[in-house]
Write a sequence for this structure.
């Protein structure tokens, strides 16, 4: 039984990648993921904004702020040093994980400045990461912001990063776009080797007793995996020339199989590790092998994209309205 796959040219022993989260920002839990059989690790994102904030707070912490008030150049200098120190910590972490891991290590970055993206990307490549995931999160909250400009920003980030690194680059996206397939093609044309669909951003909820906003709604449910599944189906069907990986709502063996059936190269797991423990990776792997055996498949390629064959006759992934026969 061969459950290996490739993703952006990386050889993966199985399709189970651990996605970026607190679990992949800590060496102990990273090692637990490796022991449980993860085929690649996406490290916790390096957030440029956070590094800048830490640099700022370090600058003022316990210091006589007047000194910096009168010497703005000194302020910049000290902030620059604190910024570099934090970046260095992250790069040390990349090196450490890489040295302890026998599977590909994918680093993830989220930046807020034009300089940040290529600078961090190059530093991460230098630190030895096998690939880079761009966690681009630009939201269409501003009513005066043109849709095309938002997409252009994504494209420019990919193009700029690709000028600075040789390792494969994927883009982890949300789905707040007008036409995702057009954007996907543009990203691939600008050099993206893979797309990770979709990031699950913070979703504020409300407690109707105290009227406060609930902020701890950070774990997904399996039904959410239907969204990436549909878009992976559509993009595969459209012949998108990039490796597609599913994230959000993939909790178990069934979830993994479904994503491969619509063309995914691999899946990323996060919530299920929090809910069921890191060892669930092994359980999912065994379940996948069992299912393949039961269905007579010897490799993932034997069934990858197989559910799209029906698509040519009933266009199920393109349907948006319910039909009477669906709910009667
Ligand atoms: C605690 C936590 C931290 C996360 N941190 C990051 C991050 O730093 N970068 C990122 O791209 N995604 C991050 N994510 C999103 C996950 O990588 C994943 O895409 C998302 O949770 C959906 O997958 P799931 O349904 O398997 O949880 C985080 C998720 C959680 C729950």
């Amino acid at each position: 039984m061969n459950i290996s796959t490739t993703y952006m040219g990386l050889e993966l022993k199985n399709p189970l990648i651990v996605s970026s989260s607190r679990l992949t920002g800590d060496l102990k839990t990273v090692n637990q993921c490796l022991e449980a059989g993860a085929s690649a690790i996406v490290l916790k994102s390096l957030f440029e904004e956070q590094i800048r904030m830490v640099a700022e707070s370090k600058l003022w912490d316990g210091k006589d702020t007047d000194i910096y008030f009168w010497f703005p150049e000194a302020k910049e200098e000290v902030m620059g040093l604190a910024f570099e120190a934090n970046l260095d910590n992250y790069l040390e972490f990349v090196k450490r994980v890489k040295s302890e891991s026998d599977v590909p290590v994918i680093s993830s970055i989220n930046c807020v400045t034009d300089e940040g993206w290529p600078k961090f990307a190059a530093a991460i490549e230098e630190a030895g990461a096998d690939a880079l995931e761009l966690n681009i999160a630009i939201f269409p909250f501003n009513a005066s912001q043109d849709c095309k400009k938002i997409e252009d920003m994504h494209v420019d980030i990919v193009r700029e990063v690709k000028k600075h690194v040789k390792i494969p680059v994927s883009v982890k996206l949300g789905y707040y776009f007008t036409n995702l397939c057009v954007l996907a093609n543009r990203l691939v044309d600008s050099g993206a080797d893979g797309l990770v669909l979709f990031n699950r951003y913070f979703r504020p909820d409300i407690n109707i007793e105290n009227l406060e906003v609930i902020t701890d709604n950070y774990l997904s449910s399996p039904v959410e995996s239907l969204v990436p599944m549909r878009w992976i189906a559509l993009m595969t069907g459209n012949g998108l020339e990039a490796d597609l990986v599913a994230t959000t709502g993939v909790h178990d063996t069934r979830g993994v199989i479904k994503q491969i059936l619509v063309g995914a190269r691999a899946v990323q797991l996060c919530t299920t590790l929090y809910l069921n423990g890191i060892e669930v990776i092994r359980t999912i792997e065994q379940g996948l092998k069992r299912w393949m055996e039961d269905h007579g498949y010897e490799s993932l390629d034997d069934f990858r994209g197989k559910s799209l064959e029906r698509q040519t006759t009933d266009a199920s992934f393109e349907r948006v309205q319910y039909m009477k026969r669906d709910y009667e």
User: Anything to note?
Assistant: Residues 5-327 form a domain with the TIM Barrel fold (CATH 3.20.20.70). Residues 19-22, 44-45, 108, 135, 172, 199-200, 218, 220, 247-250, 269-271 surround flavin mononucleotide (CB under 6 Å).
